[in-house]
Amino acid sequence: MAAKKLQIALYWGAACGGCDVAVLDTNEFILDVAAVADVRFWPIAVDGKYADVEAMADGELDLALFDGAVRNSENEHVAKLLRAKSKVLVAFGSCAHMGGIPGLANLVTKDEILATAYLANASIEPGSQTIPHARSNVDGMTLEIPTFYRRVYRLSDVVDVDYFVPGCPPAPDQVKAVLLAVVKGELPQRGSVVGASERAVCDDCKRTKSEKKVRSFHRPFEVIQDSSKCLLEQGILCMGSATRSGCGVRCPNSNQGCRGCYGPLAGVSDQGAKFLSALASIVDSKDPKEIEQILDGLPDFTSFAYRFGLPASTLQRSYR
Amino acid sequence: MSFEPKIVGFLCNWCSYTGADLAGTSRIQYPPNIRVIRVMCSARIEPEFVLRALAAGADGVLICGCHPGDCHYSEGNYKAMRRYPLLKTLLKDYGVDDDRVRLEWVSASEGQRFADIVIDMTERVRALGPLRIKTDLQADAVER
Amino acid sequence: MAIRVNPKLINELETYGAADVQNCYHCGNCSATCPFSKEPFVIPRRSMRHLQMGLEAKLKGTLEPWLCYYCGECSQQCPRGAEPGETMMSLRRWLTSRYDLTGVARLFYRSWKAELVALILVSLATMTAFLVMGFGIGHGSLGVYAGAGALFPDHLVHLLDLGLAALLASVLLTNAFRMWWFTTGSNRNLHISLWLYVKNVFLLPYHFLTQARYRQCEKKLPWLNHLAIFLSWVTMEVLVIVLLERLHSAETDWAVHAFGYLATIGLLGGTAYALLGRARKSETHYKHTHPTDLMFLILIAGAALTGIVQHASYRWLGLDSVANIAYLIHMMFVIPLLAVQIPFSKLSHLAYRPLAMYLAAVHADALTSRQAGAAETEPVRLAA
Amino acid sequence: MEEIKIGVFICNCGTNIAHHVDLDAVLEAAAAMPGVAVARSYRYMCSNPGQEMIARDIREQQLNRVVVAACSPRMHEKTFRGACRNGGLNPYLCEMANIREQCSWVHSDRLAATEKAKALTSAAIRRVWHHEPLESLTAEMCPATLVIGGGIAGLTAALELADAAHQVYLVERTAALGGNLARVDLTAPHLDSARDLLTERFTRVGENPWITLMLNSELQSLAGYVGNFAAVVRTKSDDDTVQERKIDVGNVVVATGYKEFNADRITHYGHGKLPNVVTSFEFEQMLRKGRIETRDGRLPQYVAIIHCVGSRNKEFHGYCSRVCCMTALKYAHELKSANPACYVSDIYVDMHAFGKGHEDFYKHTSEVKTLFLMFDKNERPVIRMADPSDDCEMLIEVNETLSRERIEIPADLVILMVGMEARADSGEVARLVNISQDKDGWFMESHPKLDPVATTTDGIYIAGTCAAPKDIPDTVAQARAAAARILGKIAKGKIEIDGVFAEVRDDRCSGCRMCNELCPYSAIEFHLDTKRSQVIPAACKACGACVAACPSGAIKGRHFTMEQLHAQIDGVLA
Asked: What percentage of chain A reaches a pLDDT higher than 70?
């Protein structure tokens, strides 16, 4: 009897869909997957409904890949649903793993977001400023939409997560590796990060590293780079040293500083704070005023440090 | 009963910790709100420790080191001097009031200065009221 | 304008008695102990400094050496043994030689033998002059001391006194004028109104007669001794010049002779004390004795001694011829004293000291009035 | 993971702690915490019975952690670590809570003080949970020593070490030994000849088998740490062939001396333009030739000596070069003895006659009729040619302080007492042996009063004028001090490296080299082949800078790990 096919499901919470595309980017490999697995639920790709998932027995799914952060009640509902229904739930991609780009919203309050979107927006005709509510009645019918949470959560904030696959999006060959590992059942200990290296991007980055002493910071377009030399040493912000490798050094190889999407290394609990500690230490000045001047070359450091992981940071959100 | 802030103090062993001990031997009284953690050098204090203290319920964090030029390891305090402004911009974005996290140079002979800093900081943080990050995070887990 | 430093001056001053001046490193102990070192004068350190640096123009224009009465405190205090007291003494000698127009004073100070020779020549000249005059012209006889036929008649002596007085007045006055010119006249940044000169003129006789300044030294004995010698010498001069006839009157005119005896005691006692002090170096200011100091004391003592011998032999013993001889020897001491010592050597200080006191007060007034003009400060009066 | 059994010992310190802290409450709170096997309160923990109590409890209760809530760790950490060692427990498994200097002595409110004592004790208990046993390392001490600089300092140090039968490599950049002292004729204040001082040492260096003399040589590189330095010395032989030699040494004595201030930098003095304005070293050459004369061969009648050329003023160097005053007096003597008719003017700022016999020397110089003229250090004499009518060649104009007159001083020859300056390349030497320099470029000693010949880098010693201007007695004293310190270490044979240092986890380091530059002691080496950084335990001082800055958390700060500090943070806030 042919081995029973693998029952897998994919879902996207507060996401851009990039992670789903990344799964497709494994090109023909997806056909091998299809050969051994039934995709039972993948809203972006196949036509499956929530009801179908609710109808499943608990643990019926062998693998669920959840990408995207938890921004509203629907995301949480599906997350809990998939948790119940699947043996292995994977937080797939930066949003699920650390809150991702949507996570930056935690720097502002819910009211400021709604005002920006629905009130103070140039494209809104005056007089028709309406803010969507969880329950509203239209033409005599009550209309329910998911409630917009006051902050963004990581997947692991709402459900137990078996594995984390970092990356925005995870590199196709990493996706392939994860899927193969699942197929072959060679998964490491629960709760660990898979589909990434245990060393920082610098380990795989070809640029030569030497004296780390920075006297000024620049945007990439402001300087003529030496493509053989470490970017940070040229004053271009690159978080490669504080970020797991595994992405194939995509950004530094294209002359852009790493932005840290693969998340922190094992020994680090707060990626942004750790990078801050490292970066500030190599500022080459002993005079407080001069230091402040050099650091002014970083216009919005918080957003850079926690671009993909504000909800995963120690303070998780703003307390204004 | 007025609000009693909890302040975590990271003191470097050679200068500020010794200064704090001197305040002790000289019996200089200061508020008990500060709880001191000893590190060998202010260069060992990671910004993440400050964030962790705030997240664990501290209402204020005081970082102390040797005066520039006095560092037992000759350049340790310059690292603290460099990390502090960047940490302050981070805290501003997180909405943590400026007076809650502070960097002060205290030499081994400045027992009085250490006490004055603790008195001043306790008053300022008491005026700001509780920081409530810990309670807010606990609330986040429940109310959405 | 910068003043030229002349390192050679110090050698010149050594011939005037200065010693170890170069050892001074200006700790200022001397000026701290000197009772006279008050604004605007810095005694003795400023002069020590100008001497070390060879600022001849400055030294010539200073009054400070004359404001020092050699109490010797500074020399005792000096950690480097630079003998500031003796240096000021040598500066007074040097200034005396500078004030003397003729340059004879400079010769005498530079070589004391020259002065000794001059003294001897003058005394021999006096002897011959008196003998020629006594026997040759006046036809007096050895045996007659006073009255008609006296070997040395009074009217001749008066003539001699007047001549001497004229010589002294001319020399002393010119030198005093030069002193004024060097210290005050040529000093451009001192603007002294006539009134200031008049206001302080009483200081001249006051200091001349009392040496009031000397009294401010801690030890009073040196002042008393000096005053005794000085007043005795003045009384003796007055008696000889003005009351000569009464001196020689037959009867002992106690109203006059009492003074004579007192003055003699003063002179003999004073000089004896000074000579003994210098021999035993008992006081700091007796430690260094310049030959001119010795000659000066010997002349006075000699004059006083012969004076009393001449008086006693005539008045008490009636030995006219002995009196005449004594008188002759007395003259051989007095004339050199007056003709050489006063204008060209130590005794000229009898003019310079009071003048210095007077000018110092004038300077002080001029400076304070300028400062007063500049800032309302209480005028500082030099202790009169 | 063995089961954690913690012994908590709370000290009353007589009444010092008991007075303001309710110790029973603290004891009770501590006893209730997880992992606490035994909790005791005692009057004097640091007393012998107190320490024996700890050792006994460790043995009897098989304790593997100890917390002592008492005075400041700066006071008795060593004592209680000793007590643990006596009990057979690794001393680093002990943690103190400072409930005296930073609690009972400074808080009078008993309730608040007790709360704080509880928090501090709970922090210590949570921290000690994560402590790990640490062993101090030992390293061999190579008995050979490298001495850089062949001047009086280097020679003295080398001989002191060689006489104790230890190998010395004496490296001298020029072709001859003697350094600056060899350029001098006589020395102040006793006017004994510099040559006598040096020749005795040259012969002994030449004959001593333990000294390897390397002239025309320079240190090329120095790697390793105290007891285990690998030095590369480059020697230039006459036909310009360069030969490199690798030598292993245990310690280094830096005795590179000083450079005299370049007088041309002060235009007022006209050095280089006016022929008869010479520096002190140029005058020494005249003395060594035995003929004091102006450039055109005349015997100078007036000689002026100007002090503090380049020293003690805002524009050039603020410090005093210490030796020029006595050297100037020496010149006054030599001038007067050579030509008694010569008039010497000594133009100075202050007369620094601080050493033995200096004051008498100063007094004696006055006695030979030297004219001393004082000027203010921030104002400077101006030298100009005199008119032909004057009896001197030059005139020096200055405001003389003692007389407050503006004077001009006649001079046929002017000697400029040039001060001392750090050598131009002292920066390279400092970087080579990894020591730091003060703002004037002099090498920095470990402690200005208590440790003047050592530096913050173990095994690197400094002696003589390279550390600061000083005269020959001080230089020789420092050279012998450095040698004595080294002999002490050699005699011990081994160097003990404290167990607390940073350690790079090879499985986590990604070769980003962020840490390499942060270490003031260059205790982190980057291996190009494996692309990994590594800490040299002996050189590491455990400041923790690299631990905090390592972006991938790959450097573990032994005894101050992230887990220990996190536990302590949570503990103080519990």
From this structure: 99
